[in-house]
Amino acid sequence: MNKSNILKAFLLFAITTISQAQEIKSAEVIQVMEKVADWQIENYEGLYSGHSKPHHPLDWTNGALYVGMVKWAALAENDKYYEWLKEIGEKHEWQLHHRKYHADDHTVGQMYIELYRKYQDKDMIEPTKEQFNFIMYHPAQTSLHWKTPYHQSRWNWCDALFMSPPVWAKLYNITGEKKYLDFMMSEFKATTDFLFDEKEDLYYRDESYMGKLDNGTKIFWSRGNGWVFAGLVNVMNELNPQSKEYKYFLKIYKKMASKLLKIQTPQGHWAMSLLGQEFYPTPETSGTSFNVYGLAWGINQGILDKATYGPAVQKGWNVLVGHVTPEGMLGYVQPIGAAPGNAWPDKTEVYGTGAFLSAGSEVYKLYGGK
What we know:
Elements: H1 3-21, H2 26-42, H3 60-75, H4 80-91, H5 108-119, H6 126-137, H7 160-163, H8 165-175, H9 178-195, E1 196-197, E2 202-203, E3 213-214, E4 217-218, H10 222-236, H11 244-263, H12 285-300, H13 306-321, H14 350-366
Helix pairs in contact: 1-13, 2-14, 3-4, 3-5, 3-14, 5-8, 8-9, 8-10, 10-11, 10-12, 12-13, 12-14
């Protein structure tokens, strides 16, 4: 390593060390969340990770943004963020995206239900209820094995556990109809039995990564497991903590939380290949945001010990904030993919913003926000 690279490495280490130790203040969390949310709304149709045209407003990418944006809207001082989300729903007549069974196209339903909770307008949720009722009475008979016919009509990739199950759980909560919960539990268990590695307490992205090694390590994608970890939280938020269903999710959540604590990088992020941080040193903010969100939630709920997990949240949040530009763009978001890859300081994505806003909503509470 030449002198220039040694100096750069030292400066990065020094900056990281200082940022990790920085005390988090709830008012500053609100300020950076507002800056990131405003930048994203202003650049909603921007092309920042190589795609050739803006994402459809009902696409999963934006659906994940809305999941975080609605959490921010609940903290903001005025309703302009709710109004922005409401306008999207109204424009598309509260429809889910075009694929009836595909979990990705259900994601936007999470936002619709949260808006229903605020405005009590049944039109906001009727299309979602109708589509989910159809799925229940015409369940997909497809295999969970990868690349079998119509395989993604079921949740056979781990991202799906963020996209669709929380919608089912929310429908159960607001209607009181247990059929939504029962269907979700059956499918979630099938996916977990298929993709969860009991030795590593992590999820494979899909069957195609089982048995493969990357630099001698099993391949567990950071954002993929982040999708699951955040999805667990969003489901548990809808359930009675005394219920058997909640306890099922809690058991998985605790296993993942313990593992994530052990494999967080010294810098505070999580490597794109969770078990191969020495081979993936580049920061990545979408998976890290989901993990910070999930861990901070656990502390706030009294599930995780603050003395044990609090430092991980502090390091994680500080490293995330360090990748927000002065204008409010969250950098180092890995582009759309399904496996460990690369990320860049000047590239972002809407789902990364959604993950960041979700993380901020729990970090704010953790550090004294009301």
